[in-house]
Amino acid sequence: MGGDCNADLHSKSRSEDELYYEEGVRTTADPSLNVVLLEDSAAVIGVAIALSAVSLSCLLGTVASFIIRTNAAHLVGRSLPKRITDDIVCRLENDPMIR
């Protein structure tokens, strides 16, 4: 993929002045060179986007694992004190909407 792009850029005849990528695409007489060059560029950009998406997924997974590990001790195994639980039950039993 990248080799094709590199070969396409170097196979093009260049004048004394170096042509920039955009100028080369616009001024070439060979339409197949434009097709291959632009397709290869799109493929390289697509790979970069995919790599960044996978990297972000790994980062989010790591953050989620950290949050789970740090908060699990606070969420599991703790209960309300007996007097608070009894108070809640008493209030619920005395509420006419719940009966």
TrEMBL record:
Keywords: Membrane, Transmembrane, Transmembrane helix, Transport
GO biological process, one term: zinc ion transport
Transmembrane stretches, start-end: 42-68
Entry annotated with the keyword Membrane: yes
UniProt KW DNA-binding keyword: no
Protein name, as recorded: Uncharacterized protein
Organism: Parascaris equorum (Equine roundworm)
Alphabetical list of InterPro entries matching this protein: SLC30A9
GO annotation, cellular component aspect: endoplasmic reticulum
GO molecular function: monoatomic cation transmembrane transporter activity
